[in-house]
Every structure is written in structure tokens, then in C-alpha cells.
Amino acid sequence: MEAKRLKEKIESYRDEMVKTLMEFVSINSVNPAFGGPGELKKAEWLESKLKDMGFEFERYDAEDERAEGGVRPNLVVKAPGKDSSRTLWFVSHMDVVPEGDRTLWKKDPFEPYIENGRIYGRGSEDNGGSLVASLFALKALVDLGIEPQMNTGLVFVADEEAGSERGIRFLINKNIFKEKDLFVVPDAGVPDGSFVEIAEKSILWLRFTVSGKQVHASTPNLGLNASRVAMNFLSELDRLLHEVFPMKDESFSPPESTFEPTKRLSNVDNVNTVPGSDISFFDCRVLPQVKLDDVLEVARSLAAIHSRKTGAEIKVDVVQRHDAPEPTPKDSEAVTRLSKAIESCRGVKPVIGGIGGGTCAAHFREKGWHAVVWSTIEGTAHQPNENKRIEDLIADALVFAFMMAE
Ligand SMILES: [Zn+2]
Q1: What pTM, to 2 d.p., does this model score?
Q2: 21 Cβ partners below 8 Å, 6+ apart?
């Protein structure tokens, strides 16, 4: 019954939801950790939106001198429900990753456009679509005069893409959340909306700094080519990590640990100089049954071996580390409520499992709180021509509204 009324209501917001997501995309909120301006402009736009919609909210600013305005804003919207002792939270993030290579984009990443029923632009899928869906889900309940089963909370955080220190972790320390609360983090999923994520892998970001000796490229014998040392070391590390940690756990997607060489800093500007320094990074997503200390040990020992062999110094630094917390129990209320909503609104059978992470959910799970990650997405996040299907935007809003109402 409720599902039908909610569906009609949300359907009536279609144009407004599309417009809102396009506005979201058009405001550059690249995380300052990646050289962007941060979330202030986006938060200010959302504040005026929330005021227009008549929602109560509070803003919590974490300081960050790298960001526009020197702050990383976090918004918390609350609506009262029948059970006022606990809250069902929907947590999405305002920050986005940089556009990457612009030549791979069909159009400007911050000038959204619609094609084939999709909204294109940086942040459309990650995480604007979910933010907009949660906002209009709550609006549907309010407009229909349906009192939520428990308090409903919407959280729009900063800093999710770079560790959440000034985002969800900052809010957790403000004691906004309670142990009995339930958390939905719509920041991962699959195209048919069936995947409910209850566990995430451990995360380890490593930086490798190789120091050799810079010389003219015509006399390499007088120097020590840091780039060559790095290439040999990194490719062996890549092979070794996969060899030492081959375990699979089919409840995760992908089922194995991943070890990816990612960022490399530029070295010399000219072709005829042997680089004396090389800085590269690995992004490792490790199954919870593998200890991150063991991964680190492999990297450090191999670095020591290559260092001895070549005479170059190889420094291994941990840029980010997050050891996987206990998964959310499969029978927890967060999982059962979400599963019921998926079945009722989508007619698909929920599949419960884990991913490479990391989302805001890991920070809740660290506290022992029950968080589920779910949304309907095609997986274009962080890619050029990132996009969100408008049908999924509408469909997700319905699942959220159903969860709030039932
Ligand atoms: Zn995200």
C-alpha cells in the first residue's frame, strides 16, 4: 500500500530530482587532499535547498586550511519519528575525486548533461545520486504526512574520498549518533540493486620513495637511476603480493585481495636527465582474514632487498591504513529492513556480501554499530564520463522512503 503512494509521490519529483543532481554536479567539490576546493560551496547550496524544503539541519565544520573558506562542512538533517529513541541514518558524501585526464571526457566534467536517460558529470554517481535520492525520500514522507517509524537522519559529509577524518569521523566524535541507531550508506552497489554490502576489506595505501643520483642521461654510469630501481622494485612487488596473498572469499566482490600500483609523481622535466628520485604509490584492498602487518612486512623486506642490490634508498611509508572492522551481522535490523525494502520495491532478491571498500560504513562498524551499504549503480565512479541513470535515482529514493516508512 505504502509503496504505491510513495512511488507516485517520488515519481512526481522526477524533474526536480534531475535538476538537483545536475546542480550538485555543477559545483566543484573536489577533495582538497587531491588539490580541489573542498565542499563549502556545495554545502552552502545544500543549506539553501534544505531551507526551501523546510528541513531542520545543523552544520558541523572541521577546520582545514587547504580548503576554500578554511573549513570542511558536514550537514546533519533530522526529522522526528514514532520511536524517538533511535534514528535511521542515510549517509552520503559531498566531496568528489578529481576529473583525471580531461581528454577522456566527452564534455566538461562539471557541466552536467543528460544523454540516454543518464546524468553525466563528476560526482553524479559518487555520491550525488544517493544524496539526492535520500533527500527526496524524506520529502516524500513529509509531503504525504507519513510519520517515520523512527527518527530519520540525513548526513551529508565532507572528506569521504580521502579518509573521512574531517567528515564522518569528525561527526562520530561529536556524539551525534547512538549505538542503537541504524546506518545506511548508499555509496556502492550493483546495476540491479540486489547487492547489500555488510563487510569491507582492509585498506592500505603505500608510498615508495626511491632515492638514487641524478646525472646527465649520456653518463648514467656516474649516477643511479631511481626510475629504473623503482620500476624493477614495483613490478616485483606487484607480482609478489599477489603470490603471497592469493586467498579468495567468494562473499566479497572481487573475491581476492587487490594490490594496485596507482599514482606516480612526475620526476624530471627533460628527457636527457637520469632521475635521482622516484615516488610511487600502491592501493591495497585486503581481505579481512589477511593481516595488514603481513602485507607491510612483504613490502618492507622486498624494499630492503632491492635497496641492498642497487645501492638506492627505498623508503616505504603508510599513507593510509584502515584495518577491516567486524562485518555487520547478516540478521541485524539494518540488513533486514533494507532487504525487505529491496524485495518490496524492486522485486529482486538481496545478495549479502562484502566489497573492497572503503565507505563511511567502515567507521560505524569500527564502533560496533550496524551499517549497510547499498545503492543502484552501474559502477562509473572515479571514471571519465561518470554518470547516474535517472531511473535508478528515482528507484533508490523509493527504497529509502520505504525503509523510513515501514
Ligand atoms: Zn563514494
Answers
A1: 0.84
A2: 112, 119, 124, 128, 129, 132, 388, 393
